[in-house]
Design a protein that fits this description.
Length: about 600
């Protein structure tokens, strides 16, 4: 029969001395009837036995670590583990031996929830070693030792040991995977540590980007800039941003996402901190610094896409990307909310100094915790590596980018065209929204600023909702292609519907509701086209996102300019009609030519 047991996988440095449990060793409780003892493990070996046999029939001391990690079922004949099942993060406690005259306890320092199983077997010889030949004594007439959920100071425990009659310390190979117990936070899946670090990077990305939209007001007064100059400064960011979209994807696919994203965050953080200094030197220096900042932020999305294509299995792809992109939305909320406070208290330069300095904290964590792929992470568990590699494909680095092959695929062009159509409407709403609130809905500037935060919050919430829905559908057997088409269709047709309603609404409250719903449904695109780069070409995910996002940025630049031209000759209804038309074109292209299957190897 198999024997159930609990093994403490912690070191026991508190028991130093002959016959005690020494530093670096581990122990398990052994007992039979009124004879109980400790088997000491050194690594994965039964190293020696410490027996305690008293007339009262209880163990006079115990050696236990702070955590019980595994239940090990041993083979009756060989004593090798048949299976190892985790018990979770459990706290060790007093030992209560059944059928004994007494129960030995050590005063507890702290109580904790939970209960434990038992370790039950015996040895035929007092002070002897458990060997395969002892099978007759295993599991017969044995007493169970139950561990109650109480934590003790193990430094107070003592073990009364009896040496083996022959004076030897024999060893029996146990085998099995006895993992060292670690705190709960260290058991957090490593792939989601990468996701959270990317989330933080994107949070900083938009915080550093939107602070200029607030700081530009006092800056223009101080330096006497006119509207044309302000527009030039705002647009200078995109000069660098466009430059590194494709280059960032190439670098990430060739040398790894860790280096590229780390470079990007450090680069744009330094540029943010230097912005006030450049402004005081003169306008040309400020324009160059803003372009430099765009260079750093331009590599972020391709590098992140490369990283997640290697770390995240397809069953978790949508929710991971949704979480990362929601960092951008929340970064805008934080930037817009805290910039005015900092400016009022410390002046406009404080926004750039404080926001930019946060990048150093992120970079320190990034260097310590991040790796470009699971293969490079020495701390990654075998179980998690199996999950990641089982749900992903080849992780070999890219040496040559097959441009002809990439540009010959219809799903690639579906991505590029759809990204353009999507960003046209998105950039218009986000750029011109304060003006719409002020001119059409007659809100004052303070109300307009506060309401500008609402769409970002809505997008952050619905992006994660869409991600969980998409991954759930995939896990239930729906094809990735179908899921991507459903989610992106919502991302196109939802905004199109709510923009058409804006033409008919009569009250400001309904207009704000339509705008919020439009952006909320738009966020489902994170589980559609934004996840599709990794579907169709995981090895070239960085390059693919660089290509499509270049089209998306161009849509933002041209769409913002075209909106101003339309408003000079028409109305807001005309602006919304153009966006709706592009949303419908994007829907048709996406559903006709996109796929969730791999087309680039």
């Amino acid at each position: 029969m198999a024997i159930g047991g609990l093994i403490s996988n912690r070191s026991f440095g508190s028991f130093i001395g002959s016959g005690k449990v020494c530093q670096g060793e581990q122990a398990i409780l052994l007992h039979k009837g009124e004879r109980s003892g400790i088997a000491v493990l050194h690594g994965n070996m039964f190293y020696r036995k410490l027996w305690s046999q008293t007339e009262n029939g209880f163990l006079s001391g115990y050696t236990c670590g702070r955590y019980l990690r595994s239940t090990v079922h041993l083979d009756e004949n060989t004593l090798k583990p048949l299976s190892v099942s985790p018990n979770g993060r459990q706290l060790i406690s007093s030992v209560s031996l059944c059928h004994c005259k007494k129960t030995h306890k050590v005063s507890p320092r702290q109580r904790s929830r939970g209960s434990f199983g038992y370790y039950s077997f015996s040895s035929p010889v007092p002070g002897g070693c458990l060997e395969p030949s002892d099978k007759d004594g295993i599991g017969k007439n044995s007493t169970s030792a139950y561990y109650k959920s109480e934590e003790y100071d193990i430094t107070e425990a003592k073990v009364d040991s009896f040496p083996s009659p022959d004076g030897t310390n024999e060893a029996i190979l146990v085998g099995g995977d006895m993992q060292e117990a670690v705190p709960l936070w260290q058991d957090f899946p490593k792939r989601w540590v990468i996701v959270l670090l990317c989330f933080a990077a994107f949070l900083l990305c938009n915080m550093d980007r939107v602070n200029m939209s607030i700081a530009i007001l006092p800056m223009s007064k101080e330096f006497n800039w006119n509207s044309a100059t302000v527009g030039l400064i705002q647009s200078s960011f995109f000069w660098g941003y466009l430059l590194t979209q494709i280059l960032g994807g190439i670098w990430a696919d060739k040398i790894g996402g860790k280096l590229v994203l780390g470079f990007g965050v450090v680069w744009w953080s330094v540029a943010t901190v230097l912005t006030p200094i450049a402004a005081r030197f003169g306008l040309p220096f400020l324009l160059i610094m803003r372009a430099f900042m765009g260079i750093g932020e331009g590599v972020a999305m391709p590098a992140m896409n490369n990283l997640l294509s290697k770390w995240i299995p397809v069953s978790e792809r949508s929710r991971s990307l949704a979480l990362v992109y929601s960092g951008m939305y929340l970064g805008s909320v934080i930037g817009l909310a805290f910039s005015p406070i900092l400016i009022n208290k410390f002046g406009w330069p404080s926004v750039f100094y404080s926001f930019g300095s946060l990048g150093s904290i992120w970079f320190a964590l990034w260097l310590r915790k991040a790796y470009s792929s699971p293969k490079e992470d020495p701390e990654l568990s075998k179980e998690e590596k199996k999950i990641i590699m089982g749900g992903s494909i080849s992780r070999e680095p890219v040496t040559v980018i097959p441009w002809r092959l990439i540009l010959s695929k219809a799903p690639v062009w579906a991505l590029i065209i759809s990204h353009f159509c999507h960003n046209w409407g998105t950039f218009i709403l986000l750029t011109w929204m304060p003006t719409y609130y002020n001119q059409v809905l007659k809100f004052n500037l303070t109300e307009s600023g506060l309401l500008c935060v609402l769409p970002w919050l809505t997008m952050a919430a619905f992006a994660n909702v869409g991600g969980w829905i998409a991954d759930t559908l995939v896990s239930k057997g729906l094809s990735v292609t179908t899921v991507r088409k459903i989610m992106q269709s919502i991302g196109f047709l939802g905004p199109a519907f709510f923009l058409t309603q804006l033409i008919h609404v009569k009250t400001p409250a309904m207009a704000v509701l339509c705008m919020a719903c439009s952006q909320g449904s738009d966020a489902f695109s994170q589980s559609g086209l934004y996840s599709n780069h990794q579907d169709i070409g995981p090895r070239y995910a960085g390059v693919l996102l660089g290509l499509s996002n270049t089209a998306g940025v161009l849509a933002g630049v041209f769409g913002t300019a075209a909106t101003g031209y339309i408003l000079q000759r028409g109305s807001w209804n005309d602006v919304f009609k153009v966006s709706v038309a592009l949303y419908i074109i994007g829907t048709l292209v996406w559903n006709l030519f996109s796929t969730g299957e791999k087309v680039l190897d």
